[in-house]
Specification:
By secondary structure, the protein is an alpha/beta fold. Helices cover 40% and strands 17% of the residues. The strands form three sheets. Strands 1, 2, 3, 4, 6, 8, 11 and 12 form an eight-stranded mixed sheet that branches. A two-stranded parallel ribbon has the order 5-7.
């Protein structure tokens, strides 16, 4: 059953992309008519019909593509469950509870990249966790700052493939998506997760596009940072999914890259990222805080908050760490 579903994926993709284009065209027509001036009752009814149709087309596109991505993830080739004697893993995996993740996220919800960087300096972690500036924000909201994101790292690593196919027909493409270049990390995404994809050397592979990223968002992903390729940027910006990336890419994953691991240590922009580390990102870039130092860094970073955020902090928490004592120092 899973194999049959995979074989239909390529055809579904083309159909959904066609729906998305039609939905956008319908919306553009409505806006154009309205801008020209008052409209008649008949035109108003037509607009209502077109708007409803546009919403249905757009929603259908997202839901179907999300379902296909989930199906591909479930149909992946089996992961290794036993480590051979000749293999050694020296950086252990540590699991954190949802409650502890939420506790840490609450501490970081006020902090910018600059604040966290200063906090890292204070606790002796100078030049640790600062991701290379070539990995940059896809979009910025300078009014409400909705691009600012903090989350708990979930990691994945894609590597260049050394396989080639005589022909990339629909069946072969579906097999690759389902068993070789899968999105198995979907199973471990959770509310508050920041997906970190190491795909530095996979060339023209577009590991991230508008359809799969919306599916990941539905599973709780709050943001994404990648050293690999990104496509469908217009749609991603439209949906306001926070993304930090290195380069654009146009080619699909089958025949180009393979999923190497999920929730193992990766490197992004010269920085080690482990599952459970804290990722903070905004217009200044990305900073990664080692989980074992996260609470210490957050406390050290708090005094560096800007004045506007200080006011919000005081109003929402009822606390004022910046208040002066009678003797002149902070309370």
């Amino acid at each position: 059953m899973a194999s049959a579903a995979r074989e239909k994926t390529a055809a579904y993709v083309a159909n959904i992309e066609r729906h998305s284009v039609r939905a956008k065209a319908a919306g553009a027509t409505i806006l154009s008519d309205i801008e020209e001036g008052p409209i008649s009752p008949v035109e108003a009814k037509r607009h209502m019909f077109e708007r409803t149709r546009a919403r249905v087309l757009s929603t259908t596109a997202v839901l179907v593509m999300s379902g296909l991505a989930a199906g591909a993830a479930l149909a992946q080739q089996p992961a290794e469950t036993a480590i051979p004697d000749k293999v050694r893993l020296f950086i252990p995996y540590k699991d954190y509870s949802a409650e502890d993740n939420q506790r840490i996220l609450e501490m970081y919800k006020w902090l910018r990249v600059a604040d966290v960087s200063d906090g890292m300096d204070v606790v002796g972690l100078q030049d640790i966790g600062i991701v290379d500036e070539q990995i940059r924000a896809l979009w910025k909201d300078t009014e409400k700052f909705t691009h600012r994101t903090v989350g708990i790292a979930v990691t994945a690593r894609y590597v260049p493939s050394n396989r080639r196919e005589p022909q990339m027909d629909n069946k072969t493409v579906s097999r690759w998506y389902g068993t070789i270049t899968t999105e198995a990390f979907m199973k471990v995404l959770h509310p508050g997760s920041f997906l970190v994809i190491d795909a530095m050397d996979d060339g023209e592979s577009r590991s991230i596009g508008s359809s799969n990223i919306l599916g990941w968002k539905k599973l709780g992903m709050v943001g994404l940072v990648t050293s690999g390729g990104l496509a469908d940027t217009d749609e991603i910006i439209y949906h306001k999914v926070p993304v930090w990336f290195r380069r654009y890419a146009r080619g699909f994953r089958p025949g180009r890259n393979e999923l190497e691991s999920v929730n193992r240590p990766v490197t992004i922009g010269g920085v080690l990222v482990r599952p459970g580390d804290v990722v903070v990102a905004d217009g200044d870039g990305v900073v990664v805080v080692p989980r074992e130092r996260a609470e210490e860094v957050a406390k050290a970073a708090l005094p560096f908050l800007d004045n506007v955020t200080r006011e919000r902090y005081i109003k929402e928490t009822g606390q004022n760490p910046w208040a002066k004592k009678p003797g002149g120092g902070p309370e």
